[in-house]
Amino acid sequence: MITDSYHEEKSSLFSPGAFLGERRYICDTAIATFSHEIFSEVLKMFPHTEIANTASANGHKPVFLVEADGKSFVFYMSSIGACLAGNDLIEVQWQTGIKRLVVFGSCGALDSEAVNGKYIIPTESYRDEGMSYHYAPSSDYIKIRNSSDLAGMFTALRLPFVTGRIWTTDAPYRETAAAVEKRKKDGCIAVEMELAGLQAVCDFYDVELYAFLAAGDVLDAEEYRPEGLKEPLNKSRPAD
């Protein structure tokens, strides 16, 4: 069973070096987005240099070193889904040596009242995907380890936020009413597709993960409407 996939052995039959060459150490911190629009806007705003790429039969995606306010950070657009996002992270870490990853994206609201107008800082994620079971011992939930530190940062910046459990799934078209109800009873306030896998990969490779979300579509309404997915981050505004 997939829940038996984890074992303690760190080495595998091959490493990213088989495809990417020797490890490199360029920068400690990376920021990843899932939005091509945000990705393009950041590159318009700040000086940047291409330093690496993630590659597959689908093509190459560039990884940049961005300079902003006297600081440098690795910046890339992550693939969607726990498996691909996790593999992107592994390849970026191999090529740049990052120790911290900040990642943000949209999600579906399971408790629209709790998340309305607020960023979501996940505390735990239900592991309804496959990637995490290869990188962490089996469990229903995986702890998002730096959630309290991130909440402290948001408080200092006076950004509106809510903390809580979320649900990571590989199968968005199987988010049924029964599945939503089960996760809500567990205390999940949102659903997305990457964080359980990303946290497991980060734990395995000693990368500190800082993750936050903004709700787009709503799954606890009488009728599903996808319109909110277009601009989820516009719903969350700093406090005056």
Q: Let me know the largest β-sheet.
A: 5 strands, mixed, barrel
Task: Determine the mean pLDDT.
Answer: 92
- Number of helices, where a helix is a run of at least 4 consecutive DSSP H or I residues: 7
Q: Helix- and strand-based class?
A: alpha/beta
| Secondary-structure element string | HEHEEEHEHEEHEHEHE
Shape: globular
Question: Layout of SSEs?
Answer:
Elements lengths: L16 H4 L8 E5 L2 H10 L2 E9 L2 E10 L2 E7 L4 H15 L3 E10 L2 H4 L3 E10 L12 E3 L3 H10 L4 E9 L7 H9 L2 E5 L2 H11 L2 E11 L22
Parallel strand pairs: 1-4, 1-5, 5-10, 6-8, 8-9
Antiparallel strand pairs: 2-3, 3-4, 5-9, 6-7, 6-10
Quick tags:
240 residues, five-stranded mixed β-barrel, alpha/beta, single chain, 7 helices, disordered C terminus
Task: Describe the protein in words.
By secondary structure, the chain is an alpha/beta fold. The protein has seven helices and ten strands. It has helices at residues 17-20, 36-45, 82-96, 112-115, 147-156, 177-185, 195-205, and strands at residues 29-33, 48-56, 59-68, 71-77, 100-109, 119-128, 141-143, 161-169, 188-192, 208-218. A five-stranded mixed barrel has the order 5-9-8-6-10. The radius of gyration is 18 Å and the shape is globular.
Care to give the gist of this entry?
This protein has 240 residues and is of the alpha/beta class. It has seven helices and ten strands.
